Every structure is written in C-alpha cells, then in structure tokens.
Amino acid sequence: MTVLLVEDDASIAIVITAALEAEGFEVVHCETIGARDNLLAEHRFSALVTDVMLPDGDGIETLGAVHERFPAMPIIILSAQNTLDTAVRASDTGAFEYFPKPFDIDELARTVRQAVGAGAASPESVEDAAIGEGLPLVGRSAAMQTVYRMITRVLRNDLTVLILGESGTGKELVAEAIHQLGGRRDGPFVAVNTAAIPAELIESELFGHEKGAFTGAVARHLGKFEQAEGGTLFLDEIGDMPMQAQTRLLRALQSGSIRRVGGREEVKVDARIVAATNKDLEPLIAAGQFREDLYYRLNVVPITLPALRERTDDIPALARHFLKAAATEGLPRRQLSGDAADLLSRQSWRGNVRELRNFVYRLALLAREDTIDAANLKPLLDQMRPAPAEPGEGDAIDTAVSRWLAEVRPVSGTVYDAALAAFERPLFAEILRETGGNQVRAAQQLGINRNTLRKRLGELALDPEEFARRG
Ligand SMILES: Nc1ncnc2c1ncn2[C@@H]1O[C@H](COP(=O)(O)OP(=O)(O)OP(=O)(O)O)[C@@H](O)[C@H]1O
C-alpha cells in the first residue's frame, strides 16, 4: 500500500516517511501541488498525507476536487495552527483527518493505518464506542451518520466545537461523547448552562473570583475554566450569554488565559471548548446581541444535530432504547410491537428526543401489557399528548389579536413591542400562578434568565408575592 506524502519541509518529510514505513507503507514523496496532481493522475494511492502551505499555493483549496475524483482515498491534512479555519472548512468537503502541527508522529502513522484499513473512524465505531462508554448515541439514520462523522473528526484534536440544534436533540450528549472518546477523557468534563446563571454571577462562575472580590466572596473560588483544566468545558445555551460575559469569554479564548474576578494575575487555562445553542446565532449577531468575533471563535467546527422529524427512521430504535433504559431504572420491562413503533414514528416530536424519551418512560409506567402494540398505544398517546392543533384552533388568538389591535392600538411606540408586552403580562401571570410565585421555577419554565424575569416583572408591575399568597 502506497501513501502519497506532500510536504515541502524536507526534515519533516523524512520523519513522516520513516514512521509510515515502520507502519508497513510505501511512501511516495513530493513537494508541490503540481507534482501531487501529476502523481495522482498516474498512480493509485491508498492515502494522501498533505501539508497546507506549499511552494505553489495553498494545498487545501484544491483538496475538494481531489476528494471528488478519489472519494475512497482518505486525506490527512497537516497544518500549523494559523491555518485551522481553512483546514476545517476544507474538511467539510470530504472525509478528512486533520492534524495540527506539532503532532505526534506515531499517532499520525496509526491514523493513516486506521484510515486505510477497515476504518476505526467509521461512524459505527463511534456509536459502539459511545454505547460501550455508557454514552449511548442511538440512531443510524443518514442525518446521524453525518453527525458521527463530524465527531470522529474532532476526537484527535482540540478544535473548538459549536453544536447547533433544537432543544432536546442531544447536544449535551454529543458534547459528552466528544469528551469521553477524545484525548481528554481522563480530564474533567465541566458543563455550564450560561443561560441559567444570573448575569451578575456569570463571570465569577466562568473565571472564578478572589477572596473579597465582592460582598459574599469569602474565599477564593475557581471558575469553570479552571475546574475544566486538562478536560472539556461545555458552554451550553451560549446564545443567551450576556454581552459583557461574551467579551470576557472572547478574551479568554484568544489569550488562552483568564483573570479571576478581583484578581490581578493572568492564569493560563487549558480546556477544550465545546459550545452549544438552540438559537440561530446569525440573527442575534445582526441584532447586536451576540458578538460576531466570538461566533467565529466558537464556530471552528460546527456540528448540527437534526431535529427528530428529520430522522423519523431512528424513532423505533430510540423508543426501544428508552424502554430498556427505563427497565434498568426499575420501571416495568416492556416491548414495542412493529406497528406501535410505526405509530410513534408518525407523531410529531417537537421536543425532539427529550420529549420522546419522557413519553416512553411514562409509557413504560402506564401501559397494561408487556408488549405494547398500536391498539394499546393509541389511547395512551391521546391521553398523554395534546391532540395536534385542529384547523381553526388558532382562531381564539387571531380574534384576540385583531380586537386588541382595534381597541388598544398604542398611540405611541411600536405595535410590535406593545403587542409583545400585552401578551407577556398574562403569560407571566399564568406561569407565576402555576409555580406559586416561585421565580426560579417560573424562569425555568419560561426558559428565560431569572434576572430578565425579575426585571420584566418590575416593568410589567407584576408582583410574584401576590401569586405566592394566592397559590
Ligand atoms: N441520539 C440519542 N440517543 C439516545 N439518547 C438521546 C439521543 N439524543 C438525545 N438523547 C436523550 O435526550 C435527552 C435530551 O438530550 P440533551 O439534553 O443532550 O439535548 P440538548 O439538545 O442538549 O437539549 P437543550 O438544548 O434543551 O439543552 C437526554 O435525556 C438525552 O440522553
């Protein structure tokens, strides 16, 4: 088996050649894109290992075309840090492995061996490994295969990953998988939900504080960055992070160091960053609510998780997986018949895998039969899930809106803001009623920051105490 090595630095080429030969490959070496293309035209290679900056140009730009011509030939890119973004962009176009320089030469040789062989980096192996690690990522749909492929690409490096996808699609699970299967598995996995922390505490949460930094700071506190030293820092709900904290986060990512609140020294930090959001960040950037430069910093390798409706063929496997999981947690052991699985697949799961999971757990508890078929399932579905909206069901809201517009149209200010405020007040009141005036729970249910809730309640002249008395 012959590997084509494109590397213009002679000493690096010698070392790589020796390592590949020790792994049993023959190596053909060249130094330019022109020579590479001539060789590719004349010979078949088992793999291509290539540097990025070459004497006759940027090797990456033409790799998409090479991959198209030889889709079965794995391509391994060697690159210095400053060409990361390009490398990642190129990797989106095909099946590439990516090695930032400096790299472990033996690991490179092993990677080439794996890429050429049966493919330890195949999507199935991630799934199997994940199950083995107790981190099940269930689903073999085409959409999930793409996700697995992306995961394998980031396991051997520390590139920043941005996981995108609707709520409940498994973003946190993917972040955990990247940690558990990657090179940092022996370090800590620290998750922080940036939306759940009050704005004034977020910096101290992330960067820590020194004793006496503010009232109540009775001892030095290490922030999540330092807690994640040597491991992975998972920044969840990044789209909801307050602006000021975004600025500090960006600085930390750029410099690789943090300063504790109230502290003077810069502390070096070493944590792999994986961020996630269910928000579309581009409109937030346009609205000035998310820093564009931070977005580019985080969005080095985007992994987009499909909504469950885009992979309904995974629903039977997921449902059976959750039934099994429920049984190991002490719920009755149930089976799902084929027609019941089909029926589940035809439902719309707006809350994605989380909604399906919760439903299946309730099903395990409430079903009367050990094997649930479609006939058993139907009444439980009707009972446990609100019926899909009938045509015309939105009429009540339509009428309310037109009446509001006709009667209360604000004389000054924009209609949009006034309409939102008009809707917000009864919504907040209803949720406060449900939670007996508990602002923490109300904020959780609404899915907004507790501080934002408190501020809006003040502006809307809503007193949570009143609901506590009533509730
Ligand atoms: N592919 C999957 N296989 C098995 N379980 C999954 C899968 N995807 C999600 N889950 C399960 O669904 C639930 C929701 O997943 P997770 O919390 O990772 O979603 P999320 O996208 O991070 O949600 P949010 O945006 O609301 O934080 C969890 O219980 C998780 O274990």
In terms of structural class, how would the helical and strand content be classed? alpha/beta
- Rg calculated over all Cα atoms: 27 Å
Strand content: 5-15%
Count every helix, treating DSSP H or I runs of 4 or more residues as helices: 22
Strand order of the largest sheet: 2-1-3-6-7
Query: Total strand count, please?
Result: 16
**What's the CATH H-level superfamily name of the largest domain?**
P-loop containing nucleotide triphosphate hydrolases
Helix content range: 40-55%
CATH architecture of the largest domain: 3-Layer(aba) Sandwich
Task: State mean pLDDT (0 to 100 scale).
Answer: 82
Biggest β-sheet: count, sense, barrel? 5 strands, parallel
Can you tell me the number of structural domains? 4
Give every kind of bound small molecule, once each: adenosine-5'-triphosphate
CATH topological fold name of the largest domain: Rossmann fold
The top-level CATH class of the largest domain is: Alpha Beta
Through-space gap between termini: 75 Å
Q: What coarse outline follows from CA principal-axis ratios? A: globular
Annotate the secondary structure layout.
Blueprint: E1 2-6, H1 10-22, E2 26-30, H2 33-42, E3 47-51, E4 53-54, E5 57-58, H3 63-69, E6 75-79, H4 84-91, E7 96-100, H5 105-116, H6 123-132, H7 142-154, E8 161-164, H8 171-181, E9 189-193, H9 202-207, H10 224-227, E10 232-236, H11 243-255, E11 257-258, E12 267-268, E13 272-277, H12 281-286, H13 292-298, E14 301-304, H14 315-328, E15 335-336, H15 338-345, H16 352-366, E16 371-372, H17 374-384, H18 395-408, H19 415-434, H20 439-446, H21 450-459, H22 464-470
Parallel strand pairs: 1-2, 1-3, 3-6, 6-7, 8-13, 8-14, 9-10, 10-13, 15-16
Antiparallel strand pairs: 4-5, 11-12
Helix pairs in contact: 1-5, 6-7, 14-16, 15-17, 19-20
